[in-house]
Structures are given as C-alpha cells and as structure tokens.
Amino acid sequence: MKQLAVYILLVFFCLTSCANKENTSVSSPDGSIRVQAGIENGKVYYTVDKKDKAILNKSFLGFVLKDGELGKDVTITDVKHSSFSEKWDQPWGEEITVDNTYNEMTVDVQENGGLKRKFSVVFRIFNDGIGFRYVFPEQENLKDFVIMDELTEFALAGDHKAWSIPTSTLYFENLYKPSPVSSLDTVCTPLTMETKDGLYLSIHEANLTDYAGLNLTPENGTTTLKAYLTPWSTGEKVFAKAPSVTPWRTMIIADKAADLLLSRLMLNLNEPSKIKDTSWIRPGRYIGIWWGMHMEDYSWAQGPKHGATTENTMRYIDFAAKHNFSGVLVEGWNFGWDGDWTKEGDKFSFTKAYPDFDLKKITEYAASKNVKLIGHHETGGATQNYENQLDSAFALYQKYGVSAVKTGYVSPLLDHKERHSSQYGVRHFRKVIEAAAKYHIMIDNHEPAMPTGLQRTWPNLMTQEGFRGQEYDAWSRDGGNPPEHTTILPFTRGLAGPMDFTPGTFNFTNKVFPATHVQTTLAKQLALFVVLFSPLQMASDMIENYENNSAFDFVTSCPTSWSKTIVPEAKIGEYLTIVRKDRDSENWFVGGITNANSRDLSLPLNFLDKGAKYKATIFKDGEGADYKSNPYPVEIQEMEVTAETVLNAKLATSGGVAIRLIKL
Ligand code: NOJ
Ligand code: CA
Questions:
Q1: Fewest Cβ atoms closer than 10 Å to its Cβ: which of 40, 268, 569, 573?
Q2: Binding-site residues, ligand 1, Cβ < 6 A
Q3: Could you give the CA distance from residue 304 to residue 297 in angstroms, rounded to a whole number?
Q4: pLDDT tens digit sequence for 470-503
Q5: What amino acid positions are annotated as catalytic residues?
Q6: Interatomic CA distance for residues 38 and 53, integer angstroms
Q7: Domains and CATH numbers, the chain
Q8: Ligand 1 pocket test: which of 331, 420, 499 has the largest number of ligand atoms within 8 Å of its C-beta?
Q9: Model-level pTM greater than 0.90?
Q10: Tens digits of per-residue pLDDT, 517-550?
C-alpha cells in the first residue's frame, strides 16, 4: 500500500514536470507579447512576437568560457512559471509610482555530456517589453569561471532603421546616426529601432553591477545582432563565480515612439533601494563655475584666470541664493590641474584645495545662504588614485556639508589600461556610488559606463553623462551639436537614465571657436529643462549672461523631479513635446522642441484638472527667431487656461516652447 502511494506520487510528479517542460512559452500580462524558448541542435533559443507578428526569430543563447563553450549540447531539465505584480515609489524621478507587473518563465538547462554543467535563463515579460538573464547555480563543475564571449543573439525579424553610436566612441560622446540594422558597426546599447510596421524597439541591459557592458554587432551583414561584451585589456570579458547572475538583457517594444520614454522596464529589473532613509537625497537646480572654463574665460588650474577662487565662488553663491538654485558646482578647486591632467590623473588630490579656494569659508557662506557647494572629482581616469582617496575625499566633503559630487573620467582608458564599460570600470563606478552613499553624497557621474538603472538600488546616483552634452557647443571642431541632436537623445541614451546635458545657454557667441555654437534658439534651451530629465539639472551658462533676461524666469521656476510625465507627441529626430507635473505642487511644465525645421505646435491641455483654472506663462520663439542667425527672440505670453484650452505656438528652426502652468 505504502509502495503504491509512492508510485502514484512519482507518476504525478513526472506528469507535472513533463508538462512543465513542454510549456516553454510565456506572455505579457496583457497577452500581447509572447516569448517562446526551445532547443535546436543542442542549443537554447528564444523567439519574441507581439500580436502574432515576429519581433525576434530564433535567437540562440550561450557562452564561450575559457575552457570551451557552455550551452552547446544541452537539454531543458525544467521550466517554471510565475507571475508578479507590485507598485513601488521613486524618491525622485519622472513620476512617483512605478508599476512592476510581469509574467516570468525560468528555463533550466544542463549539458548532456562532459561536465554536465547547468544554467538557467529567466525571462520576464512586461506589457512594454521583455528582459532575460542567465543564472549560474551553485554546482560542482562550475565554480570560478572566465567568460570569453557571451553568445546571446537578437535575431531581428526585419532590417529596421536603428539609431546608433559605434562602440569605439570615447565615453559614448557621439551623435546617434540612423542606418539599417544590417549595416551597423559594433554599436552601443541602448539601440533604438523603428520597424517598417511602425513599432519601436530598444535593446539595452539592466542591473549591470559586476559584468562587462553590452554592445551589439550584426552577424555578417544580417539582421541578427550578437552580444559583444567590452573586454578587459587582457582579452577576457568577465571573471565570474557561481552562484551568480548576469545583467538583464532588455528590449522595450512600443507602439509609439512616445511610449519608449514611458517604459520603466529597466528600473523594474534593478534591485529595490538599499538606502533606507533617502531624506538626504535631494534633487535640485544648479549653476557652476564651469562654462567659463570651456569658453576659456577661466582656467581649471591656478593662475591669473583661475575660476575656482573663494571670491568668485561666493559671487556664484549669491547669485544662486537670489535666483533659487540649490547648488553651485565649482571645478578646478583642487591640486592636480596643472600640467596635462588628461594624461596624468594620478596627480589629483581630492583633499587639498588650491590656496585661493577656502573650502571652509565657502561652505559656511553657502550654508548661511541656504545653498550647497557641489563638489568636483575629476579623476583623469586614474581610478586607483581615486579609490585610495575615496574615503578621505568624501569624509572631507561631508564634514563641510557638501552633499553632491560631480565625478569625471577624462582619459581614453582607466589607469591607462581598461575601458570605462569593462568589468573593471563597472566595478569601480559601483564602488564610488556605494562609498558616496556611506557619506550621504549624491553622484553626478561624467564619462561613466553606460547607465543601466542602478539608481533604483542606489538613489544617490542622480544623473550621469555618457553622451554628447552641451559642452560640445563650446569646443567641438564640427560646429557643435546639430539641431536634431536633442530630438534623438531622449530615445537613445536617454532610455538608460537621467542625463546631465547642462542646457541653459543664453549667450550664443563663441569667441574661442566662432564657427562652433549652440545650434538652437533660446526658447529651445528653456524647453530642454523639461524635455531632458535630470534630477540635478544645471543651468550651464555664466551667470553674467542670465542677468536681466526675463526668459531666465522659466529656468528658475522649473522643477527637477516630477509626479507625472506625459508625452503628447514625438517623432525621433524631428520633434518632441513632454508634459510633466511638479512633485511638490499642482503645477505643470511643458517643453516642446523641433529639429532644423520650424513647426506649429498645437497642444490640448486635457491633462489639467477638469474645472480648474491655471495661469499659463508661455515662453516661445519670438518674431524672426532662427537658430542660425537670430537665436535670441523669446516672446513671453500670459493667459488663463483650463483643460479645454488648446495652446498654439510656432517653433522656429531648431526652436522650442516652454510653458509653465500654475494652478489658481
Ligand atoms: C568632462 C566633463 O564632461 C566636463 O563637464 C568637465 O568640465 C571636464 N571633464 C573637466 O572635468
Ligand atoms: Ca564629458
């Protein structure tokens, strides 16, 4: 009798697990997206479709390890299904509450012969796309291992139009160019694509913490993209240990370009915050002793043109206090800038100020005016030198009440050896974020590894560079960022997280490189404060250029953290309008921008509370505005509006409109 019971139990177990093994497909909660996994010729593959249209054909998975391929001759041993749904709140962001709802499928595989090593692929399917990652469980024959290549494929079902920058780009500072997938170079992610059917796809990764950055390369001119991980200088890609997981490989699948900007899939695939009390993490607006260096009015190094003097900093603090800025960034305050710092970053001291910069006096003065000094750590890429000083540097800043630090890594290689997006770089950047958190310091990271949503886990990681920012309008020999640049950036690098673009040019003359200049109108500069999300947002021009300009009123009132974001219209490379609601009030802000073509914007204000009245202040391109010859005219118009109102504005060539809506 007992034996029979055991037998029945065994049969039952076998039936359920066999049935499980056959059910290798999983759909999004709304049923529109489906992922199917399987084995062909001994290798695991997956496919993706949306509403029965193929997005990815059979795309194979696996690795080349130092001692041979992993995933070459495997069997599916189990398939598990589950569902999950939660809502979580962001301490700052483009909205407060994020919905994290998905169906999950875990496919366990094992090698048929040899070492019988095991790994799993976990798929999470959201309504707005997919994520999957490899899991290496603890096992006898896979302990420490070296990944020489990740064989992950994305076999795209069409030769889509893709906006990309090549992987060879230093610090991702390049212009995204459209081309068919099949003719791509090896490119960085996020890789955003438009299909002939009008779908929008963006491939990227999430939760990159101890692995190499992902790049993609088309296989022999086809539309199958293969992973290419940024290597160590010695050629290996990743030094790993089981048990462990890889970062998530992600793809947003959107019906409209606008919806790409509303996907929170990358954040959902990161770990919840490790910082319990986030009250010290404060978004804000800042100015800085900065553009003056790029315009060569000031120098970083000490000398007659030194920008970071006590006196000049106090002048900036006065200006910040008067105009409602929370921070003043000061670059060039510390020893190390004399000589060629881009080659010898290890000369930087992060605790020794130049003699004409009195840190104590400055920070006391700032505190008396309710302004904070924003610290600066340019490392020149010398990560070892920086890591050696990390604790003392952050402790010094904490002692003086400095709660945000801009870091920088200007050097083609870290420590003359390793790429920024290599596992080495990724480890370093995470170490800095975690150390900063210990000292209650927020980070604005320039020349980073490509962001992957770590700010969910470490919300002191506020904003980053890793794209071509406004500084290129100071000294780039190609004339500066072209008009379409900011109509592409939100859909490409912008999908990886907040961008410290540093908008806010009010003076368009460049006396150093007269042929290079900001290629927008002034109204478009205002609109960028809404369009380009950054919880620390810089108004980058020299303060003299803001005095007595009534358009500055928009900058000094524009929030940097939001409770809601809406994207009424978007066409990549052409135009973009974003509407955001302030975190701390009932007020709304709108930014609309266009490329080199002028356009008429017609914006229904149907997002406003029904029945309520708002005072609208509209900052738009004035008569004769044109980015090439006359960027300055801004017409400021005030009117009372309701949810029924439709606002119209003419945007000049590379023009814009910025609107403030105050609830009455
Ligand atoms: C490059 C950064 O992007 C820029 O903002 C900074 O001024 C320089 N490095 C110097 O640190
Ligand atoms: Ca830079």
A1: 40
A2: 290, 331, 378, 408, 410, 446, 465, 471
A3: 10
A4: 999 999 999 999 999 999 999 999 999 999 999 9
A5: 471
A6: 19
A7: 8-268 (2.70.98.10), 284-417+467-557 (3.20.20.70)
A8: 331
A9: yes
A10: 999 999 999 999 999 999 999 999 999 999 999 9
